[in-house]
Amino acid sequence: MHNLYYKGRIHTRENHVKTGYNTKRTVKLGTEKHPLTLVVASDEKKLAVEKLVADNGLFAHITVDSSIDENIDELNAILNKPTTTTFDKTPNRNDPCSCGSGKKYKKCCG
Asked: pTM to 2 decimals?
């Protein structure tokens, strides 16, 4: 009964420890602790990729190997993150309609 308060409430200290600050989160890809692993086919491509990595403030291990396919998918995923889509707000009922008819929205397209 030492873990429960009046009427069965869970002890606040234990609840805080379970839902507190997350210290076990994963390390972000592209940092010094977890660099990108990229494979390119030529030295020219390696120089171009190194410049791209440096411009974006990332860290990467780049290997040159012409016998296997190029693999820069991790870099492309970081550089081409999807953006949040936003929609135009629909007008209020008494605002003029957005179609340009001059009527109120509630009488035209609402």
From this structure: 0.53
